[in-house]
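Page 42, continued from yesterday. The earlier attempt failed because a stray header line got pasted into the input along with the sequence. Redoing it now with the clean sequence only.
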Amino acid sequence: MMNWLLVISEGITNIIKHAEEGRVTLYRCIEREELYAVIEDKGPGFPLDRLPNMTLFAGYSSKESLGQGFTLMTKMTKRVLLYTSPIGSTIILTFDL
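This time it went through. Structure tokens are written below.
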């Protein structure tokens, strides 16, 4: 249970640091025994030219980021989906219950 709290707090931290506003919504699917966290923001989105490095390489950092967020998310979740645009991003995290 603590895994999802840690990962969601990372998402909230990123909203505070990089976006004007955002929200986190939790859904529970009883049939699949899964928890979904939908993290949405109205920030500038992820730069597409750096997206592979930011999401696939542990410890990739920039002046805006320490580089551990996506590593944490991919290691502690069942699945991570990322949608990004210049007007905001959505990350959908799936956890086993």
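Notes: The two ends are 8 Å apart (CA to CA).
Reminder to self: strip header lines before submitting.
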